[in-house]
Amino acid sequence: MSEEKSIFTRIIEGEIPCFKIFENEYVYSFLDINPACPGHVLVIPKEPASYLHELSPESSSELGKALPRICKSIIEITGASNYNIIQNNGSEAGQTVFHVHFHIIPKYPESTHSFTWKTVKLDKKAALELSQKISDNIE
Ligand code: AMP
């Protein structure tokens, strides 16, 4: 983890302004400055972890509790009944700010953005081996 404060820590600490949505002891939320569409919101832990797998159980739990509450408010206020949650980890996965964040991105009937990917056929033998290995490795 970098020693330098991320831009999101600077937002939490009030050094950089934002359009704040929510704050409690563990979680902070604000509008994305370059939204995909109106109501594009970021939800972040106050803990300065770069990647989701580095987060403490306390921050993870509080994020899990805050996300549905914030989503409910967004869909009620914007009128968008559909939305995506995107959470990038690592630059090759599209992460540009190295402080854990969840994007909540409403999808309106007129929205043109999409999050799709090409699929491959699941090899049953490889899938069995991989699923068991990942399962056995969970701490
Ligand atoms: P990601 O590409 O998943 O790391 O997303 C980082 C997001 O942070 C982008 O959507 C940016 O538009 C957003 N962002 C960067 N700086 C700010 C800021 N100062 N205030 C609000 N959102 C920001």
Quaternary status of these chains? single chain
Low-confidence parts: none
- Strand fraction: 15-25%
SSE string, helices as H and strands as E: HEEEHEEH
How confident is the prediction overall: mean pLDDT? 96
Number of strands: 5
Shape: globular
Termini distance?
21 Å
What spatial order of strands do you see in the largest sheet?
1-2-3-5-4
Secondary-structure-derived class: alpha+beta
Helix content: 25-40%
Quick overview of this protein structure:
The chain is α+β, with helices and mostly antiparallel strands and 139 residues long.
Provide structural commentary.
The protein is built from three helices and five strands; from the N terminus they run αβββαββα. By secondary structure, the chain is α+β, with helices and mostly antiparallel strands. The model has no long low-confidence stretch (mean pLDDT 96). Adenosine monophosphate binds next to loops.
